[in-house]
Design brief:
By secondary structure, this protein is an alpha/beta fold. It has helices at residues 17-29, 44-56, 67-78, 95-102, 120-130, 147-157, 208-219, 233-239, 252-258, 265-284, 317-326, 359-365, 379-395; strands at 60-64, 85-89, 106-110, 134-138, 160-164, 172-173, 176-177, 184-188, 201-205, 298-299, 304-308, 332-333, 368-372. Helix 6 links the parallel strand 4 and strand 5 (160-164). The longest helix has 20 residues, at 265-284.
């Protein structure tokens, strides 16, 4: 009899009791807006900014309504205006090009390599050819490119690096936290990320003027002094009238949900990686599948896993994905021409204008399979999932 996995791939762990208790206190107090505070009182949102800046190792932090809003504000605060060229790796999710489009930026998409990293040769070529001075680097699905080479290239060509760390909160590259390379970095607290507030975002930077512009753009009005990790009053007075209010604030309820989760993050990263390694080892046993080896100096967060269905004919991959789904294993495929759920390929973002041919990226995505690894799964669950995927891959193997 064929086994079937019976747990949801979209089920998260419960919110910590300490967060639930604090949220109830906030709700009973009725002061949900981040600037609705008594004299001398720090709001939940301000406290979150302070605590996250300390945890990340950044000077400044701005809490926003979503990760996508953090991206858009980061672009604006960095100086992107209508018509500004922005480099972006082609393997990402829709909020990244959406943020570039929302600021009026003109994206130039960069190829990826077989390990889902930015192709650094293509990055150099397109940076020079386009004259772009901004690069929004998405660490898509937690795969961190060679940051030494990227930083060297950005320094050489005068490019501002904006990091999208939605999938790398807590990850490191050669000991440095993801998000501490770029001029400004953005994080997501959407339900499927490493901290869960349903929706939410965080922006970090060490540059005072950029931080001040981001606070104003987030929608501070003239309440910027009520934020938790900000530059001096003098910095704000220089920029406060030059930046639009984008009304992208985080409220106190979501901040209260997040604060008790932050001290648990390092332990959760350990738990994610335990599950990831079991899945990785199990998938390695399937000759039809190829697991990309993670580099030793990349301390990643295994909240999802990707592999190549390289031993299955491309036209049969949808049937393989469907067969796994019928047995309760939910896998996404990045080779589909049509968007599905959260998954979309770069050539489906028609609002970006003229199609940019990226043959290497298309070839890589044609076999790319993607699967969430929620912490509600046990280690035994991960072994069972890998077994089901192996069995189905064998049914669709090239002959």
């Amino acid at each position: 009899m064929t086994s079937r996995f019976d747990k949801l791939f979209t089920q998260q762990e419960p919110i910590p009791e300490a967060a639930i208790e604090r949220v109830v206190e906030v709700l009973r107090g009725g002061r949900l807006h981040r600037y609705n505070t008594a004299a001398g009182e720090a709001s939940e949102a301000a406290l979150l900014e302070r605590e996250y800046a300390e945890w990340q190792g950044s000077k400044y932090c701005v809490a926003t309504a979503s990760g996508g809003q953090a991206l858009q504000i980061a672009l604006r605060a960095s100086g992107v205006e209508p018509g500004t060229t922005v480099l972006a790796n082609a393997y990402t999710l829709a909020p990244v090009p959406g943020a570039i489009h929302a600021t009026g930026g003109v994206p130039v998409l960069v190829e990826i390599d077989d390990a889902w990293h930015t192709d650094l040769d293509d990055l150099r070529t397109k940076a020079i050819d386009s004259g772009a001075k901004f690069f929004m680097l998405s660490h898509m699905r937690g795969h961190i490119a060679d940051m030494e080479r990227i930083m060297a290239l950005c320094d050489e060509l005068g490019i501002t690096l904006i990091e999208d760390c939605a999938h790398t909160m807590g990850a490191r590259w050669k000991g440095t936290r993801s998000g501490n390379f770029g001029r400004v970095s953005c994080f997501s607290t959407q339900t499927y990320k490493h901290l869960n507030s349903g929706e939410g975002g965080l922006l970090t930077t060490d540059e005072p003027e950029l931080a001040a512009r981001a606070v104003i753009a987030s929608g501070s009005y003239m309440f910027y002094g009520l934020h938790g990790a900000i530059p001096s009053e003098e910095t704000f007075r220089e920029v406060r009238l030059d930046n639009p209010n984008c009304s992208a604030r985080m409220d106190n309820v979501r901040a209260a949900i997040l604060r008790p989760q932050l001290p648990l993050l390092d332990e959760n990263i350990r738990r994610w990686n335990q599950r990831y390694r079991i899945l990785e080892d199990g998938l390695r046993e399937a000759p039809q599948l190829r697991v990309v080896e993670r580099r030793q100096h990349e301390a990643f967060v295994g909240s999802s896993i990707q592999f190549h269905a390289s031993g299955i004919a491309r036209e049969r991959i949808p049937a393989f994905i469907s067969a796994c789904g019928e047995r309760g294993v939910e896998i996404k495929w990045f080779g589909a021409a049509e968007p599905s759920g959260f998954t979309s390929r770069y050539d489906s973002w028609r609002y970006l204008g003229e199609h940019q041919p990226l043959p290497q990226t298309l070839q890589v995505l044609a076999t790319t399979c993607d699967m969430r690894v929620p912490l509600t799964f046990t280690e035994a669950d991960c072994s069972e999932i890998a077994s089901i995927i192996r069995e189905e891959a064998a049914q669709f193997a090239n002959t």
